Amino acid sequence: MSLSNLSESQRHGMSELFRKIAPVADELGELFSARGYQIALVGGSVRDVLLGRIGNDLDLTTDARPETVLELIRDWADSIWTIGIDFGTVGVRKGNWLLEITTYRSESYDPKSRKPDVVYGDTLEGDLARRDFAVNAMALRLPSREFVDPHGGLDDLHAKVLRTPALPERSFDDDPLRMLRAARFASQLAFTVDPAAFAAMTAMAERIEIVSAERIRDELNKLICGDHPREGLKVLVDSGLASHVLPELPKLRLEIDEHHRHKDVYEHTLIVLEQAIDLEENGPDRILRWAALLHDVGKPKTRRHEPGGRVSFHHHEMVGAQLAKKRMSELKFPKDVVADVSRLVELHLRFHGYGTGEWTDSAVRRYVRDGGPLLERLHKLTRADCTTRNKRKAQALSRTYDQLEERIARLADEEELGKIRPELDGNEIQALLGVPPGPVIGRAYKFLLDMRLDKGVIGKEAATEALRQWAHENGLPPE
Q1: 458 and 432 together in one domain
Q2: Where is coiled-coil annotated (predicted)?
Q3: Which one of 113, 132, 366, 433 is least enclosed by Cβ atoms within 10 Å?
Q4: How many Cβ atoms sit within 10 Å of the Cβ of residue 370?
């Protein structure tokens, strides 16, 4: 197929791509062609160029087997990595370009296995037919620069639709992760899912459970960090996939009747997520986004009907923190990510005890101390959590939080709040009490820290005297 089929802007994108990657593309194409092998730029790389986005990562596909690819590029590449070679992929760095060269293949799951089986193919057309969506099944042969689009991916790109090259039931049965990828691309590209594909996802949602937690986690991470996460999450929930990979989300759609009044928690959550994103300063913050998504997951378990038609959710932040920790641990997130997200969920209501500014300086210090390195994210999550349509109430809450931040800044200048420590360190406590490291030292440290938070800086002499008094009251007369 000729490049003349492309729009003017798409032809310009292709020209820019080749201007940027030549001579890399030409050299690589000639290198493979001279040995009788095919190679083509493929998948997301072609799609993104046609969407006007050109990065430094390129995906290529070839009929050469991985061991042959290694032989062909050994003297050409600046560096090589083989972490994905079991799946047919060889990584290459050439100058500023990062290339992944993958042998023509297909992936399919045994009904009882969590790991895909990789089967190598022999033709580019066969490789494209096995890809997830038509918009990812376009290619550019090298070095001829022939545009290959056997499944109408270019038309789908114009229509912003995700359609499978093969029958969707077959495609999703071969690799159930493609159902999650549909939701992920809805988030990243703001594309809609073709009705036939969506119907297959809905019917086959349970099949996603055969996929490993790590692969599911990676797709969910990309979805939550996309430009349009609401769209991706809506695909997950409406198709039923969320019930298998993130069941806390659809559970937020609590039934609301005329007698018991509360916010639509699911819609509220999506708005909080969007408002948190608006407060980001340096690109997607996955910790903040996951905390915003999960901040109210404790509400279904804590909902109580109160007199007068009210509904309460007492301690939902504590329950939610445990649920967030459990879900993210099951999805194999790193421990620090699990800890940070669950801590933000636990703290997200703390500000509402501030009222109209009644907190003492001690309470402000504790707020900063509890927020720790997450304090800036806690500020953003707290502000994002205001979704009331009452403009007067929203403005009052915003002003009150402004005042809290001003108090934090003032105390920080005076006391270095971010570095709050007891005025006696561990060695000094041990020397005063005459006991080795252990639980007693921990209790003494906590006593001094609480006093520091309550009273601010009182000086080492006063801190020493207070510790002596504490030790005496606890039957531990210091030496």
Answers
A1: yes
A2: 387-414
A3: 113
A4: 15
CA 6 to chain centre: 34
* pLDDT given for residue 414 in this prediction: 61
pLDDT grade for 293, boundaries at 50, 70 and 90? very high
Tell me, what amino acid is at 429?
A: I
Q: Quick one: pLDDT at residue 459?
A: 82
Q: How far is CA 248 from CA 107, 183, 388, 433, in A?
A: 30, 17, 23, 49
Residue 225 lies in a domain: no
Per-residue confidence band for 258, with pLDDT thresholds at 50, 70 and 90: very low
How many CB atoms lie under 10 A from the CB of residue 168? 26
Contacts of 177 (CB under 8 A, 6+ apart): 208, 211, 215, 216, 219
* 353 and 443 inside one domain: no
pLDDT in tens, 312-364: 888 999 999 999 999 999 999 999 999 999 999 999 998 887 666 677 887 88
Question: Are 363 and 457 in a shared domain?
Answer: no
DSSP-assigned beta bridge partners for residue 120: 105
Residue 257 pLDDT class (50, 70, 90 cuts): very low
Mark whether 444 and 391 lie in a shared domain: no
* 131 shares a domain with 10: yes
Domain range spanning residue 12?
A: 1-159
Into how many domains does the chain fold?
Answer: 3
Which pTM value belongs to this model?
Answer: 0.81
How many residues can be counted in the chain? 479
Q: Is residue 60 part of a domain?
A: yes
Instruction: Determine, yes or no, domain membership for 335.
Output: yes
* Structure confidence at residue 259 (pLDDT): 39
Q: Are residues 407 and 434 in the same domain?
A: no
